[in-house]
Structure formats: structure tokens, C-alpha cells
Amino acid sequence: MSIKRNTLIISLIAIFCLLFLKGVPTAKALTIDELNTRAGQLQTQLNQLSSQISSLQTQINQLKADIAKLKTEKPITPVVPETQYACPDIDRSGKLDVKDFYVISRAMNTCKGNSSYNSRADFDGDGCITDTDYNFFTKYYGKNDSEIPQCKGVVIVTPVSEDSYTCPDINKDGKLDVADFYIVSRAMNTCKGNSSYNSRADFDGDGCITDTDYNFFTKYYGKNDSEIPQCKGVTTSTLEDMEKMMASIAETISQITAGVQELLRR
Fold it and tell me: What is the pLDDT of residues 167-180, one digit of tens each?
């Protein structure tokens, strides 16, 4: 009984397999030309992959060479150690301030032979003013010479006595007021050569308008010229002079306005 059952099962499996295979589509046979075309395509892809592998291998070899070179090279050391740099207090005022900054900023990225080169800002003495000099300067910016090792023993230039300062009444109207303050504030932190520099606000005459000038100005702000020692003997503008000046300015503005209108009519 079991043999007949097994035989029946096997027969059913065989019938199922025949029915299944009958429904499976047979693969289309490729022609010789199609096979050759396919082979050519595969060969092209293979060549491209080979080229890419070759390029990658070249890059790997270059990286290996660079790594080997870095391992054998000695670290670059400065030509001059920082302990031998020049004192960064360029104007020898006793402190690194805006005047020193102005000098180095104007000379940045220049070398000997360049008209803008300034040997006083070439702290490492390599003949060029670079980031090395700038970074050394900013390291001590705002500090007094006594706090800078490279400035030990440097002779400080004695500042000009306040008695020799110029009269801070810039517009000569007889009093230090907002008009004078406006001129000073616009020229703050500038030096000769800067478009905003105004020699009338450079009371100590050192070529730069700094806190020294500002503090001197504010010391007498609101006072009349008669109360300011440096303004004694200074001729102030009379009301008539100021009226003439205002009339001249008004006439100039009128002429400019007329010229603009004429251009617009064209």
C-alpha cells in the first residue's frame, strides 16, 4: 500500500514539474553578431575600469611618496628666534598703540626695495614684513614696553610737553564745542597718509590722532579760548567772518544745484 502511495506521489510531482516547465519561456538564442557586440561593450567597460584603477594607483603612489618625504624632512624653524626680534614699539612711545599699528599695517606684505617697506616693522629682520611680524606685533598689542621682553633697555622717546600742543579750538570760533568735537572724532586713530587724517586735530604734532589728542581735547571741552593756555594769542573767527564763510558755502551749493538741474534738463 505504501509503495503504491509513493508511486502516486512521485507521479504527481513529475506531472507538476512538466506543467511548470512548460510555462517558463525559453531564453532567446543570441546571434554571432549580437554576441560580438556584447563582447565589445564588455571590453570597453573593462578598459575604462582598468584606466580608473591605474589612475587611482598613481595617486596612491604619490601619497605614499609625500608621506615618506614628510617623515624624512626636518621641521622648518624660524631664521631668527623670537627672542632676537626687534622691539615692536615702533615709535618708542613706551606702549604698543594705534600709531605702531598704523605703521605696520601700511607696510604689510612688502620687502626691501618696495617703496612701502619700513624696516622698523620688520621685527624678525628677514627683509620682508609678513604675517610673522604681524602676529608678533599683535601678541603684545596694548602692552607697555616693560611687559615686552624684546623692549628691555630700549630708550623711550620723551613725549612732547602739553605746553607745546596746539589750540584745540579747531574752527577758531572762540570755544570748544560740538563742531570741534565732530572734527576730532572723525579723525581719531588716523595718521599722516590716511585720507581721514586731519592735522588740525593732531594737537601734539606726532603725526597721528590718538587718545593723547582726544584726552587733551576733552580736558578743555566746553571752555572758551580765554580759559585754554594753548589758545592764548590765537585769532578767533569773528561773526562777520563766519557769516561770509556761510554765504560762500551757500553760493557754492547753489551753483552745484544749478549745474545738476541743467544736466537733468539735457
Answer: 999 999 999 999 99
CATH 1.10.1330.10: which residues of the chain? 82-151, 162-235
User: Residue 110: beta bridge partners?
Assistant: 129
Phi, psi of 158 (to 5 degrees): -65, 125
Q: 82-151: which CATH number, 2.60.40.1120, 3.30.70.980, 1.20.1540.10, 1.10.1330.10? A: 1.10.1330.10
Whether the CB-CB separation of 230 and 167 falls below 8 Å is answered with yes
**126-136: pLDDT as tens digits:** 999 999 999 99
Greatest CA span in the chain, whole angstroms?
Answer: 144
Look at residues 159, 157, 167 and name the one whose alpha carbon lies nearest to residue 216.
167
Which region among 66-70, 92-96, 103-107, 135-139 has the lowest average model confidence (pLDDT)?
66-70
| Residue 212 in grid coordinates | 593723547
- Gap between the Cα atoms of 57 and 55, Å rounded: 5
Q: Which of 171, 181, 170, 193 is nearest to 218 (CA)?
A: 181
Q: Residue 181 has which C-alpha cell?
A: 568735537
Dihedral, CA of residue 141, residue 142, residue 145 and residue 149, to nearest 10: -40
